Amino acid sequence: HGLYAVRDISALGLALLAPCDAFVDGEHFRLDLFVDGEPYIEGLLAHVVRRCDAGLVACSFDGPNRAQEEHLDKLVLEVQKRQIAERKAAEQRNEESKETTRDIGADERS
User: Fold this and answer.
1) pLDDT tens digit sequence for 57-71
2) pTM strictly above 0.90
3) Residues 45, 33, 73, 27: is their CA dihedral positive or negative?
4) Helices (H), the chain
5) What is the rounded distance in angstroms from the CA atom of residue 9 to the CA atom of residue 97?
6) Quick one: which of 5, 58, 64, 13 has its CA closest to 35?
7) Which CB contacts under 8 angstroms, 24+ apart, belong to 6-13?
8) Which residues have a Cβ under 8 Å from the Cβ of 102 and sit 6 or more positions away?
9) pLDDT 10s digits, 84-110
């Protein structure tokens, strides 16, 4: 099929950024997941659950073996940690921006 970016991943499946016509609903396939250009999980069996107009293809994993499942759990945990850190950083930037705006407003009134 080709190389596609992963938009979202869980222990049960993933969403690929792919043209909707690249896959067929219900299609079964084998995939390899790469992290930083290196193979991380190879030979995962999956099938297409849904194709969306927005270029997303939702897939469900079909019985990963124990090693694949352990790697998926680690990968999902790392993705969640990264998302939490990004969300906290954005919230902190937002708070700092609000404080700067308040300080500027106070200086202008003096």
Assistant:
1) 999 999 999 999 999
2) no
3) negative
4) 66-109
5) 32
6) 5
7) 6/33, 7/56, 9/72, 9/75, 9/76, 9/79, 10/76, 11/61, 11/69, 11/72, 11/73, 11/76, 12/60, 12/61, 13/46, 13/49, 13/58, 13/59, 13/60, 13/61
8) none
9) 999 888 888 888 777 776 666 655 554
